[in-house]
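Student: Please help interpret what follows.
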Amino acid sequence: MSMFVALLHSIVLAPDRRVIMEDLRALAKELGYREPRTLVSTGNLVFEADEMRPHELEVALEEAFEEKFGKHVDIIVRSDCTWMALCSTNPFKDGSGDQVIVRVMRLPVDPEKVEALKPLMSEGQRIAIVGGDVWIDFAGKPSQSKLLSALTTKRLGVGTMRNWNTVCGLAEMII
């Protein structure tokens, strides 16, 4: 048995309807996953499952999510070991926890695509690729940066963003 972290790209089903975390935990239980727990209301799920590859879990969760909620959502799954490795590689630990964000990628990001984002960066912002994921220190509110709106699936590939506070919170849940 292993522990996994699943990150939903979006929990918005319609402009006025979101998936509530109780329903996400119930979905995980229906799939036979044990001890499903969520962190904040933005689609962060920690659960235990038999030894499976993260990609197999992604497929199972995405199919079940679409069947239950009527909308496809990209879901990124990492094992507890790879999540802890991600936590140890934050290149911007000196940044503010709500301003440092990682875009956790399904497949390693193409460095050329990240290089193309650099003209959108403001003074003080930093960006790095570590282990195929994209780390950004926004050095201010991410919502006020031109860079945030460019961090899309169309531009970078399938992935989802979490701030450093959430990354650490998920790590605490799996220790």
